[in-house]
Amino acid sequence: MTRRFPERLTPLANRLGLQPLYGDIHNHSALSYGHGRLEDALARAALQLDFVSVTGHAAWPDMPVDVPEVAHIVDFHVKGFAKLKANWKSHFETLSAYENPGHFAVFPGYEIHSCAHGDYTIVYADLDVAEPELADTPEDLKTALAAAKGDRALAFPHHIGYRQGARGINWDTFDPALSPFVEMFSMHGCAEESESERSYLHSMGPVNGASTMRAGLKRGAVFGIVGNTDHHSAFPGSYGHGRMAVYAEADDRDAIFAAMRARRTNALTGDNIHLLTAIGDTVQGGIIAPSDKATLDIEAIGGGFIDVIDVFRNGALFARISPELEPAPVDPGDGATTETILHVELGWGARGKSHDWAGTLNLEGGEILSVEPRFRGAEIVSPLEGEDEAAVLPTLDLADGKVTFSVTAAANPNNVTSATQGFAIRLRTKPGARLKAVLSGKQLDIAIDDLFEGAVSGNLGPIDSPAYRFHALPRPHQWQWQGRVALGALEAGENIYVRLREKTGQMAWTSPIFCRKEA
Q1: Would you state the CATH architecture of domain 21-269?
Q2: DSSP conformational letter for 261
Q3: Which among 206, 181, 208, 184 is positioned nearest to 194, based on CA atoms?
Q4: pLDDT tens-digit series, residues 474-484
Q5: Which residue intervals of the chain bear CATH 2.60.40?
Q6: Is pLDDT above 80 for 149?
Q7: What is the Cα–Cα distance from 410 to 217, expressed in whole angstroms?
Q8: DSSP states of 128-149 as a string?
Q9: Helix 38-48 and helix 71-98: axis angle, to 10°?
Q10: Rounded distance, CA 372 to CA 270, Å?
Q11: Residues 58/88, Cβ–Cβ less than 8 Å
């Protein structure tokens, strides 16, 4: 299985000697509290990620044990902490069994809750941790991790957007030496700034402006950003619920961890978007000295139609790029063929029901280059929200020019929450090519030229039956962009980051580039 599209022609990434790798280092299973076996979480992660850390819940120093209204929450936390402690040593055997050097890296990790300082996830570089290091404050945690593992461990605040005192970030105690990045996006929502279409909807409360990424930048803090799922049902990388990218020098655990340490990270919602920025040789997350004349290089390869690419400078919109109006594809093609991305989406049907999809796809008059799974787990961010289910591992394979797949898709629970499953196919096609598909026994013959005009959808049976959608195909200039943005003079204290939005609402954010005198 191909977990991500290979980026064959990415001049900026090639010049910098970096490659994008995709992961989720904050998610949960029944290792502590949560649903689903650790083995199932790791198997699902290996389907569509390059690296993972399946997180246990370890401690909550200032847990509100004397508040009767939250006694049920205290109860499952206490039991979860004890469960992780009991499972800690033995779970390394399972982690090691799924490690696949050069293809899939597994990092051990856990989290510590805190009302006063915000929740932190701890990630270790190596699979040899005797016991979790616990501490009441970020300062004490930094000391404990450094004493135990030196620079082979890090910690980062997650779901930062909750208000300080309610498990949101405490910028006063944030330490970049402990935390190279913060988790800005997850199933909880988006904490880029106060206003967002992906607002916090969990029972813990809404986003607080002083806890956002923008607020931290305004305070002068130096940090990268990541996304993760915070999924509680053994489904790391669940599509649309958050994941991260690192720009690493190689596909191995040391290079991945070094990229984390260097803040060469992105936050993503779901699509494995390639979004790389640099000023000279300084990439996202880096620190650059003041300059009289600076230029920002941007290289973007989306997972579908790119709507806009926004450049933010000191928290304000500085430049807006529309590939439709300013076409500049990374690889425009040869004119005789067109390289594009087909998103196949499966689900719908009567609420409360699900359907087991299986099928094949092949392309006549073109070539299927690679496939990318876009599978999602149940919409669960709390152990109280669901029950354990028997794990059914989706499949997606490309062999001899044919795509074969199987996946179970539940109907959408309401009109604003998607439960669809899907995958994307990167293909090279000629005019007149046809897509031949079999979806759960239904045979389809679709003209590729029609898909360049718009999406094609249908049902397996009558109205309210499970349905499929072949998304519209983008032209090269609609899913790729490369170019430069003149910044002029760059002064100490400034920061610059880039956000990409696709027409489907999938998004990517780069870590900021910081300008400091001490660079």
Answers
A1: Alpha-Beta Barrel (3.20)
A2: H
A3: 208
A4: 999 999 999 99
A5: 271-323+479-510
A6: yes
A7: 40
A8: --SS----SSHHHHHHHHHHHH
A9: 60
A10: 11
A11: no
> Where does the pLDDT of residue 335 fall: very low under 50, low under 70, confident under 90, or very high at 90 and above?
confident
- The amino acid at residue 450 is D
Average pLDDT over residues 246-267: 97
- Helix, coil or strand: residue 93: helix
Amino acid, single-letter form, for residue 155: A
- Residue 79 host element (H or E): helix 71-98
Q: What are the percentages of helix, strand and coil residues in the chain, rounded to 5?
A: 20, 35, 45
Query: In this structure, is the dihedral angle defined by the CA atoms of residues 162, 164, 167 and 173, taken in order, positive or negative?
Result: positive
pLDDT at 390: 64
CATH of 271-323+479-510, one of 3.30.70, 3.30.2320, 1.10.1060, 2.60.40: 2.60.40
**Structure token pair of residue 317:** 């919109």
CB atoms within 10 A of CB 69: 7
Nearest Cα neighbor of 364 from 296, 262, 437, 460 is 437
Q: Mind listing the pLDDT tens digit for each residue in 155-204?
A: 999 999 999 999 999 999 999 999 999 999 999 999 999 999 899 999 99
Average pLDDT on 84-95 reads 97
Q: Which residues pair with 500 in a beta bridge?
A: 309, 508
Residue type, 461: G
Q: Read off the pLDDT band of 383 (50, 70, 90).
A: confident
Q: Side chain identity at 324, as an amino acid letter?
A: E
